[in-house]
Amino acid sequence: MKILRYFPSLHTRNIILLSNKISSKRITNIFNVAVFMHIIIDSTEYKKDRNLNSKNFSLIRDLGKRGLLTNHLPWFVYKEYTTTGISESIQKIKDAISALRSLPRLGVIKNEIDSSELIIDELQSLEQKISSSVISRWKDYISASNSKLYEFKEKYSTLIFEDYFKGNKPFKTLKSRNDIPDAFIFQDIKELCNQVELFVISNDGDFRKAVKTLSSNVHTFKNLDEFFGDENFKVTLEKYNDLIDNEEKLKFINRYLLKFQPEIEEEVLEFINGISYLEFFDDKLKSDDKAATIQDLTDPIFQIYYDDIEIVGKEAFVPISVICNSNIEYAVFKADYWSYDDLPKYSEEINRHYYLIEDSVQLKLEQNVVINLEDVTINENEELGFVPFALDKFDRVKIL
Prior knowledge:
Structural class: alpha/beta
Radius of gyration: 33 Å
Distance between the termini: 28 Å
């Protein structure tokens, strides 16, 4: 039997449909998706945005947060960026202090010089905080973007210095000291590209040529803008945009169901009242096949688990439950019946082998209600939006 109800406060398309069929599946979190891309960004690109909050790095952060991209951060890239940032910031402060201390030579009166000494004290205090500030910003970005920071690997040293003395890639010439940091990054790429398809962003043309010789798994780009134009990235970006759209729909579904929960509950409870002679299975039952039949359901308590509403693909899954008192009946083998001390008196003799047992229990009925996201209409005013909430059976029934 199907029950249709139109809410007077909604448009006529806003229907809650209750019947007797819905499949149940285990669902995963909206952000728990497979990593699509693996990248390494050279320090020259990071230096373009010391605050790591430009449009490009914000996108990298969000893609990493949603599991669509892993940013691999070699130790030498991290150290080159942080030490340069710390050094340049400290030098700026020292220059400011030096300029303030030169004021007497420019004819500034004593009272003003005393004020400048207070500023110098503040700048010296700030200088002590620079290192932790730069490192903290980086750690925050690494955490927010789910980037992977690599440790310094001493095992590379022998290989690197053999290449250094022989002039092998990535060294441009024999004993080129300037290429030693790149040589360590090169080894990270060499190891990683044997495991995944890797996208390397570096402004150094010679370095790009060197890493491309490692494997067909390596793709190189001179900057992030060029990388963002790659067809592989466009596929990932499309998935990202779908996730953003789904997040908005997830927020709206929560608001919509919360606003109309009384109407939804009324329909669900009407559906509950219509359930009879429904078979379920529970290991707590003493029947041979652990099966019993529900005769009726009373005193229902309905719940929507808002914190557990999730999206997978093009569908949202809304976990609900109803706790009820119930009269059930099941068959027990006669010989088994007399071996149990906690069974109620049998109501009748079914045949030569079985008694019919009638019992009163508390049941919990659970279901994941499936919502097709293509049918969801988002609106700031929930009454003008639409979420097709459809329930047509409970897949999980258990005795409490």
